[in-house]
């Protein structure tokens, strides 16, 4: 057992993947000697060399585009996009090339690229460093999208993402990088919970509270704080595809669903989940599906982010709204 | 405004003049047999015929669209024949001549423009990636692939070289310039082959660049060369040298093949709206096929029987292309869901099942 932060757990997972498969490469801005601006690739350059841990020119489209080419040559590149807001220069390569290559080639080409993106707000940053772009990825066929909420998942899911033959967007909750947990790094890979499965993070009976990434901790705090209702917290883990059976089973028991995320409200993941759960659980619902999300505005200056991001009180308010029907 | 560089006459590497005179070039010696020149002539004629048939098939409603290579045959055959079997090419969408050299069946190209596939061939089997439509995107794939070649240690005399094709318009794209830079700092074994056909749909070259395209390379730190793109021998020699330089570990080269798009951008385009007929006439005098024919004739390297044989072969190819195109089967509706993901995906599986049931409901009702 190792007591690891989420950041260190991703690092250990990357190391394990690189030891397991010599075709695994890490590439991005400052991932080499510096170890990345969040130090997630710390030590990899020293131990695996510059051919496998590649400091790239400062150009996100170039990073993703060359990663696609390397994947066609048989490599498994793990790309680091330094911050969420810097993904956008790579949007063309991601949406028109990475996501479509398998389908375009009728399955003759695989592009097993993992794109790691530290995402989300709450760190007092300047503009473009606090965004939650997951909806763009969810809307793109051909991509898998996952987000981790704890060190155990960080360690295993990065390895699962790397072994996947599909391109995976791997969202790391940057304000939770320093959250710690005991991780059994000696456990067999095959026994890890698949990254596609949602997880009941805390059982409950009155309402289902769905979260992923940075909001899982907030959701658990809400469940702890609410003495009036028994809240079941689900950590979604995979945003695309969504493990609906786990969510549906929970909602059919509790009759209520609150979805929370840092992404903006309109067209966000919660909107799609609300639509699907309404279809599948219509006769079990005691209230509409409630969404607690960021406002439909650009991410504000950091002195306002505590009002912009859904926090404990807003999540509890959302739960209360679910009981108002 | 003043700009001296734009008015300099850049050197154009040429081995065979439009009149069919073999002049050679001291920097690009080319040892080539009469048989090989005849083979190149045959390639040029056949791809032009294939291309012309495809334009006709579009006019007849058999293809949704076609992007004609008319006028660019020498640039494509010369560079395509410079490639070795294990080299890898990353085309744009007009590289039918290169596809020909890589053993892609015409029907596979037609399938894409007919809308029955997104490009049906196996890129690994042919060393020829799928056509890429978003301008310039493939330059980065080629560069990444070449970085993979480096990591495989597949360089040296028998090493692997990578080539990517794009047009003059693509030199304005960020991805193309990022590819130049990634290739340069990594010394990647890739050749950037720009077919400067003077027009990006309706925009002439001066809307893309103030300096000759090949000169871009020096700013990125690797050599650039302008070759007569209508001279198949010069293109062959220049591309071969660039590929060998790459495979031996000496890094990238930008080859600007100076040519002309004699047809429309695609079958949807109408070039009479933006360019004058005199320009086309000027380039017709530099036709890439005519000069090879003249060379063969003037030097007694081919007789009438040879030319008649090639023409007969072209007729047969035309017939084959028409038949193949019309018999390409439409895909099944449920093919929509194929190969979106490598791994099972519950969203796709569910939608496929629902759609299959929906389709079956018509059968059940006897609607079709």
Automatic annotation (TrEMBL), chain A:
Pfam families: Transket_pyr, Transketolase_C. Its cofactor is thiamine diphosphate. The keyword Cell division does not apply. Keywords: Oxidoreductase, Pyruvate, Thiamine pyrophosphate. Residues 4-179 form the Transketolase-like pyrimidine-binding domain. GO terms for molecular function: magnesium ion binding; oxidoreductase activity. SUPFAM superfamilies: Thiamin diphosphate-binding fold (THDP-binding), TK C-terminal domain-like. The keyword Oxidoreductase applies. This is Pyruvate dehydrogenase E1 component beta subunit.
UniProtKB/TrEMBL annotation, chain B:
CDD domains: TPP_E1_PDC_ADC_BCADC. Coiled coil: none annotated. Pfam families: E1_dh. One of its GO terms (molecular function) is oxidoreductase activity, acting on the aldehyde or oxo group of donors, disulfide as acceptor. InterPro entries: Alpha-ketoacid_DH_E1_comp, DH_E1, PdhA/BkdA, THDP-binding. Keywords: Oxidoreductase, Pyruvate, Thiamine pyrophosphate. It comes from the Bacteria. Signal peptide: none annotated. Its cofactor is thiamine diphosphate. The keyword Oxidoreductase applies. The keyword Membrane does not apply. Residues 45-316 form the Dehydrogenase E1 component domain. GO terms for biological process: branched-chain amino acid catabolic process. This is Pyruvate dehydrogenase E1 component alpha subunit. It comes from Nocardiopsis flavescens.
């Amino acid at each position: 057992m190792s007591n690891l932060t989420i950041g260190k757990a991703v690092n250990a997972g990357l190391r394990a993947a690189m030891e397991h498969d010599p075709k695994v490469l890490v590439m991005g801005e400052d991932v080499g000697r510096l170890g990345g601006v969040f130090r997630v690739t710390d030590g990899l350059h020293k131990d695996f060399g510059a051919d496998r841990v590649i400091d790239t020119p400062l150009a996100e489209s170039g990073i993703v585009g060359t990663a696609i080419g390397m994947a066609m040559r048989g490599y498994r590149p793990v790309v680091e996009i330094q911050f969420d807001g810097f993904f956008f220069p790579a949007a063309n390569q991601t949406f028109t090339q990475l996501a479509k290559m398998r389908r375009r080639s009728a399955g003759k080409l695989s592009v097993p690229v993992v794109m790691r993106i530290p995402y989300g707000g709450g760190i007092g940053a300047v503009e473009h460093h606090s965004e939650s772009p997951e909806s763009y990825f969810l809307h793109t066929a051909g991509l898998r999208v996952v987000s981790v909420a704890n060190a155990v998942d960080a360690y295993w899911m990065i390895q699962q993402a790397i072994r996947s033959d599909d391109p995976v967007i791997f969202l790391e909750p940057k304000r939770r990088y320093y959250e710690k947990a005991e991780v059994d790094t000696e456990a067999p890979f095959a026994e890890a919970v698949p990254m596609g499965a949602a997880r009941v993070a805390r059982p409950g009976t009155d309402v289902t509270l769905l979260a992923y990434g940075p909001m899982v901790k907030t959701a658990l705090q809400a469940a702890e704080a609410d003495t009036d209702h028994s809240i079941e917290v689900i950590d979604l883990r995979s945003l695309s595809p969504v493990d609906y059976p786990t969510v549906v089973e929970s909602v059919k028991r509790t009759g209520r669903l609150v979805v929370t995320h840092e992404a903006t409200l309109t067209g966000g993941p919660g909107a799609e989940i609300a639509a699907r759960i309404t279809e599948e659980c219509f006769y079990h619902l005691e209230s509409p599906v409630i969404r607690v999300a960021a406002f439909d505005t650009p991410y504000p200056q950091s002195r306002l982010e505590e009002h912009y991001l859904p926090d404990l009180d807003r999540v509890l308010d959302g739960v209360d709204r679910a009981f108002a029907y | 405004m003043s700009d001296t560089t734009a008015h300099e006459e850049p050197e154009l590497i040429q081995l065979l003049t439009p009149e069919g005179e073999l002049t050679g070039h001291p920097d690009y010696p080319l040892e080539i047999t009469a048989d090989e020149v005849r083979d190149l002539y045959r390639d040029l004629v056949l791809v032009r015929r294939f291309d012309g048939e495809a334009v006709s098939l579009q006019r007849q409603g058999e293809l949704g669209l076609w992007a004609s290579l008319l006028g660019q045959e020498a640039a494509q055959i010369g560079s395509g024949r410079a490639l070795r079997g294990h080299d890898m090419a990353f085309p744009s969408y007009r590289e039918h001549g290169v596809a020909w050299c890589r053993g892609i069946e015409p029907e596979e190209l037609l399938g894409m423009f007919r809308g029955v596939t997104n490009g049906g061939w196996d890129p690994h089997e042919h060393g020829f990636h799928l056509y890429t439509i978003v301008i310039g995107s493939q330059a980065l794939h080629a560069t990444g692939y070449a970085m993979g070649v480096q990591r495989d240690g597949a360089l040296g005399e028998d090493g692997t070289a990578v080539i990517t094709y794009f047009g003059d318009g693509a030199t304005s794209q960020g991805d193309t310039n990022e590819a130049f830079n990634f290739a340069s700092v990594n010394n990647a074994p890739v050749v950037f082959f720009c077919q400067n056909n003077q027009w990006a749909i309706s925009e002439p070259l001066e809307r893309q660049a103030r300096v000759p395209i090949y000169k871009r390379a020096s700013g990125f730190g690797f050599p650039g060369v302008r070759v007569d793109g209508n001279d198949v021998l010069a293109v062959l020699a220049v591309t071969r040298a660039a590929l060998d330089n790459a495979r031996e570990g000496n890094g990238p080269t930008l080859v600007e093949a100076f040519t002309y798009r004699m047809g429309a951008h695609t079958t949807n385009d109408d070039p009479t709206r933006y360019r004058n007929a005199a320009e086309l006439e000027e380039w017709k005098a530099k036709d890439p096929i005519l000069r090879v024919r003249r060379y063969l004739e003037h030097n007694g390297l081919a007789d009438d029987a040879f030319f008649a044989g090639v023409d007969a072969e072209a007729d047969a190819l035309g017939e084959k292309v028409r038949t193949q195109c019309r018999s390409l089967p439409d895909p099944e509706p449920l093919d929509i869901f194929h190969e979106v993901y490598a791994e099972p995906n519950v969203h796709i599986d569910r939608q496929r099942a629902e759609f299959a049931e929906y389709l079956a409901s018509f059968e059940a009702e006897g609607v079709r």
